[in-house]
Specification:
Elements (H helix, E strand, L loop, with lengths): L1 E2 L7 E6 L3 E5 L7 E3 L3 E2 L6 E3 L1 H14 L18 H12 L4 E4 L7 H15 L6 E6 L4 H12 L4 E2 L2 H13 L6 E6 H4 L2 H10 L3 E6 L11 H11 L1 E7 L8 H11 L7 H21 L6 H8 L4 H4 L2 H16 L5 H14 L6 E2 L3 H4 L4 E9 L3 H21 L4 H13 L1 H12 L6 E2 L12 E2 L8 H11 L4 H13 L6 E4 L3 H13 L4 E4 L5 H13 L5 E4 L1 H4 L9 E4 L6 H9 L10 E9 L3 H13 L10 H17 L4 H33 L3 H12 L6 H15 L4 E6 L2 E8 L2 H12 L7 H12 L5 E4 L2 H6 L4 E2 L5 H11 L9 E9 L6 E13 L4 E9 L7 H13 L14 H58 L3 H26 L5 E16 H13 L1
Parallel strand pairs: 6-26, 7-12, 7-13, 8-10, 8-11, 9-10, 11-12, 14-21, 17-19, 17-20, 18-19, 20-21, 24-25, 26-29
Antiparallel strand pairs: 1-5, 2-3, 3-4, 15-16, 22-23, 23-24, 27-28, 27-29
């Protein structure tokens, strides 16, 4: 309706006595006017089908990012794991955008950090000009490869020149100085680099620090770097598998880097953590089955009084008291709200995340098969000769070079046959080194042994090898095992550290008739993909030979056997090998782990017995990671560098195993305290699952709908066709001339944010335009088949489509009517509905923006199951059918449904506004106090550094830093003050009619129409 007096347009939401009407103009403007003051607007409805509705829904999500939507879900080439999205939920709910992720090794901290990056990137509409990843030097390549292969993101490894170039761009034009870089911790903590960041007042949008435990020592330069990066970054993510070396002080210093001022001293830190014990006991009681509400309230009453004034405490205790009175009639939604409020009171719940394998559960049963190889007399002489010579050479030099000796022992134990290649090279005078395909987090990262250390072996060893001939006891045992395994298992992955061993095995296996593929670190990640695709999908390919580096970032759940042809001296590397197949998506109930040892060697006497005692081949040992590394490092040095008898080696092992048991006891004590202080994270897992089940994410269906609509309107000659009629996960993209021209224009202009994915797609369009480019919108399929183009919201095709429709007028919800029919397997949703989609936004200390769907059924009542499940059902719909141009409802019936939906949203708005007002003032004071503490702490530290400085340039630098901190404090307080008032508004996003049918009913109706 339109108001005659000023022409404003609104919706009649209520008929009132005396020919009066309440008209909704906006959330804050709903006047009551007489009937003669209104006139009807004749609108031409534009009907929107299901596909275009999905397109519009995605465009709305991208234009106005929603606080309750997981944008990172299904946006990467990774398997979906609920626990990996817990840090994402914590991060976005923490107003300071900071988190310490301390998951056990092998659970995917890198993936979690990258998911946070994708989530943040989507929520700021791609406006993240400066992102820095800091890690030990050995991990830079792994980060670069992982970002590209799994997430389609191109980051540069920053050397001195690239860093200087960035500093130069920042000095000339801050707004134009972009960075997507990975820099080693060793380089970044150099004094001149730290001074440059400080002098230029460089600011980052996001900083990710891997192996952050290197920053826990407040006396070290790495700690100073951590403080600097924290001060200069809007968002900060710290990663470590060893957050504490069984000392709470380490955790204190890491958290102090993240939240300076929040934890003033170790003593205060302990006091701040103490209320968490009662909170977590209360949460545990209320989370039980059935919930123990009275016990939960009793625990909360023990909490110190200074917390009881917090609005989240008031809300939680109020809800729990209400639940206690209701008893059996208690509402599950009230309990969930109470638990979420209690988690927000926990000092660490939103800034600390620790997932453990024992808590995650799942996984297949491991079947261990240890194969002991009995060496022939000649093979044993070769083994002993090489080790004795190297050990004597070390003693003769009166120096200690244990890593070199360990590498020699490992190479010979790996393959005596492959070691012959090295010996022959030495005899010919080639200065070849022993090359291990180094993994960046292996305990001994030395990757080569220079020929000076072993060339004297050549003469004696060549003579022994001539006598040995082609005999290789280990390979013969290996061949026997493969013959046995291949009868029951189709795909087998074989691990070795040494590239020469891999090449040796390739040759020997092909000679006996096996079809083999090989991957290692010399093969680029891009070139590995065709090899892996061929291995996975070719039924004639049974064996994959892989180094540690070759398998990094890869999942092989389509295999159910791994073979350790040689074994790392770091047991966590064994765990990670097994984790390549023992993971989510493994179809087999059990996985087989075959491991080879040489009898009568250090490998058998030390390594095999150690691994047997800790049970590594039979179960996960992730919780031992913080203590195993150092123990095994000491053990390997002493066992190899000293000429010990077998009895002495056994005694040495027992000594270290006793030490391991003591430390395991300490670790269990720490974990028990951790659970008391930090609590369980089930509420966050529930929040992730709720987002998925309610459709609050960006789906493959939405992205494909967007791209199809763009192509039909802008490039109608381009074809995007499903490769299989019954599977919409595979598509063939055949571009026309118009699309090629548009792509050239789009990628060639300034600011297109082009990267490796853009260039790869552009090349594939040029090279394969005639036969088509295979692609997928489905993240699971992209994870399985890396050669498919994966179209997510950052792919050039999706970005071109988004830009095109952003220039179109797709608003006007009152003129755009959704009308579609689709099927779902959820029986609660079957029926005919009037659908109303709203967005509701609240402004205050905590700002939110959410989607709400309201479904009115055929009886004229709001259906809660349909309202909750509509978005998910729509996104999962296999196809859409038209309903025809005529509405099934009369205009009066539809108006009644609309008024009902608006009345419901009015109630939702009022309830949200009341709850927001109740807590806003208290939250304002809490947040103000936190900001003041943080900046005052930063200013005190800068003043302390200023007092110690003598160089005038350094003095000016610290004076400037103090001024900047003061200015930023004032700005932060002003910004917070602007959020003092609370307002909640809602608006219509879309409305219309939908028919939701059962799958079988849907197809039956299709057949009936065809018969007609």
């Amino acid at each position: 309706m339109k108001l005659k007096v000023d022409g404003r347009i609104g919706i009649v939401v209520e008929n009132l006595p005396g020919a009066q009407y309440q008209v909704f103009l906006s959330a804050d403007d709903q006047p009551i006017v007489a009937e003669n003051a209104l006139e009807t607007i004749q609108t031409e409805h534009k009907f929107v089908d299901g596909r275009n509705f999905l397109r519009d829904l995605l465009l709305f999500k991208l234009r106005r990012p929603l606080s309750d939507t997981l944008y990172s879900y299904s946006a990467s080439r990774t398997n979906f794991e609920v626990y990996q999205f817990k840090p994402v939920v914590k991060f976005v709910n923490n107003p300071t955008n900071r988190i310490l992720i301390a998951d056990e090794v092998g659970l995917g901290k890198t993936i979690e950090a990258c998911l946070i990056y994708l989530e943040l990137k989507a929520r700021v509409q791609g406006n993240l000009p400066r992102v820095l990843i800091v890690c030990p030097a050995g991990l830079t390549r792994k980060w670069r490869d992982e970002l590209y292969s799994r997430f389609g993101e191109q980051f540069d490894i920053l050397d001195g020149n690239l860093l200087d170039q960035f500093f130069g761009r920042w000095e000339l034009d801050r707004s134009g100085a972009t960075l997507k870089g990975i820099c080693s911790l060793e380089r970044l903590r150099r004094e001149q680099v730290v001074q440059k960041i400080t002098d230029l007042n460089v600011e980052f949008d996001l900083v990710i620090v891997d192996e952050a435990h290197h920053m826990r020592n407040p006396e070290a330069r790495s700690f100073d770097l951590g403080e600097l990066l924290s001060a200069r970054s809007d968002a900060l993510v710290l990663l470590t598998a060893t957050p504490v070396q069984l000392r709470a002080l380490d955790l204190f210093y890491l958290l102090n880097i993240m939240e300076p001022g929040e934890f003033e001293s170790p003593e205060l830190f302990e006091q701040q953590l103490e209320p968490n014990r009662f909170l977590n006991r209360a949460i545990k009681a209320a989370s039980g089955d059935p919930p123990e509400i009275s016990q939960s309230i009793a625990e909360l009453n023990r909490i110190p009084s200074f917390i009881k004034g917090n609005p989240y405490f008031v809300e939680a205790i109020g809800l729990l008291n209400g639940l206690d009175k209701k008893g059996g009639a208690a509402l599950r939604s009230d309990l969930v709200l109470a638990l979420r409020s209690l988690h927000k009171l926990n000092t660490l719940s939103h800034i600390f995340n620790r997932s453990r394998r024992a808590e995650i559960g799942g996984g297949s049963t491991r079947v261990a098969n240890v194969v002991s190889v009995d060496l022939s007399e000649l093979e044993r002489r070769i083994y002993d000769t090489a080790l004795n010579f190297a050990r004597a050479k070390i003693q003769r030099r009166n120096t200690v070079f244990p890593l070199g000796l360990i590498q020699i022992e490992r190479q010979i134990a790996s393959s005596i046959g492959a070691y012959k290649i090295i010996v022959d090279d030495f005899a010919r005078g080639n200065r070849t080194a022993i090359e291990i395909d180094e993994s960046s987090d292996d305990l001994d990262s030395t990757s080569v042994i220079e020929t000076d250390d072993v060339y004297e072996l050549a003469g004696e060893l060549q003579s022994l090898y001539r006598q040995l001939g082609d005999r290789d006891s280990k390979f013969e045992k290996f061949h026997e095992e493969l013959n046995r395994l291949s009868r029951d298992h189709k795909k087998i992955i074989v691990f070795s550290f040494f590239k020469r061993t891999l090449e040796y095995l390739r040759r020997r296996l092909r000679d006996v008739g096996y079809s083999v593929e090989v991957i290692h670190g010399d093969i680029s990640p891009l070139n590995r993909q065709p090899i892996l695709e061929e291995f996975q999908h070719n039924p004639d390919k049974h064996i994959l030979l892989s180094s540690e580096v070759g398998a990094e970032g890869q999942d092989f759940q389509f295999c159910d056997v791994i073979v350790n042809y040689d074994l790392p001296w770091n047991p966590m590397r064994v765990e990670q090998r097994i984790g390549r197949i023992d993971r989510y998506g493994q179809a087999s109930d059990q996985v087989t782990v075959v491991s080879f040892f040489l009898q009568g060697t250090i490998e058998e006497r030390i390594l095999m017995r150690l691994y047997d005692r800790i049970g590594i081949f039979k179960e996960s040992i992730g919780e031992l990671e913080p203590i195993l590394g150092e123990i095994v490092k000491e053990l390997s040095y002493e066992a190899v560098s000293k000429d010990l008898s077998p009895q002495q080696q056994a005694q040495l092992l027992e000594q270290h195993l006793r030490s391991l048991e003591h430390k395991k006891s300490d670790l269990r004590e720490f974990e028990n305290n951790r659970i008391e202080l930090i609590g369980h994270d089930q509420i966050f897992s529930n929040e992730v699952e709720e987002s998925i089940t309610s459709g609050r994410y960006v789906s493959a269906n939405e992205i494909s709908s967007l791209c199809l609509a763009f192509l039909s309107k802008r490039c109608p000659g381009t074809r995007l066709e499903p490769l299989k009629s019954d599977d919409k996960r595979f598509w063939k993209f055949v571009p026309d001339v118009v699309f090629k021209t548009e792509l050239d224009r789009f990628l060639g202009r300034p600011g297109s944010r082009g990267g490796a994915v853009d260039r790869e797609f552009h090349q594939k369009v040029l090279d394969g335009s005639a036969r088509g480019v295979p692609m997928t919108f489905d993240s699971d399929m992209a994870h399985q088949r890396h050669l498919l183009q994966f179209v997510n919201i950052w792919h050039p095709l999706a970005r071109m489509a988004t830009e095109f429709f952003n220039g179109q007028d797709l608003s006007q919800p009152e003129q755009r009517v959704v009308r579609t029919r689709f099927s779902t397997a959820n029986p609660e949703l079957h029926g005919d509905y009037r659908v109303f989609l709203f967005s509701i936004a609240s402004e205050g200390v905590v700002a939110t923006h959410e989607l709400v769907s309201v479904m009115v059924d055929e009886q004229g009542e709001i259906s809660r199951p349909a309202s909750v499940g509509f978005l998910k059902a729509l996104q999962d719909a296999p196809s859409f059918e038209p309903m025809g141009q005529s509405s099934q409802l009369s205009p009066d019936e539809f108006d009644r449904a609309k008024r009902l939906a608006h009345q419901h949203m009015g109630d939702v708005r009022t309830e949200k506004e009341e709850s927001s007002r109740q807590r806003n003032e208290a939250l304002l004071q809490v947040r103000k106090s936190a900001i003041e503490r943080t900046y005052e702490s930063k200013i005190r530290r800068a003043q302390n550094r200023l007092e110690r400085a003598q160089d005038q340039r350094i003095i000016r630098m610290h004076q400037g830093e103090i001024r900047n901190l003061g200015a930023r404090l004032s700005f932060a307080l002003e910004e917070l003050e602007a959020r003092k008032e609370v307002s909640v508004t809602y608006e219509t996003v879309a409305f219309g009619e939908v028919q939701i049918r059962a799958h079988s009913e849907f197809f039956m109706e299709d057949d009936e129409e065809l018969d007609c």
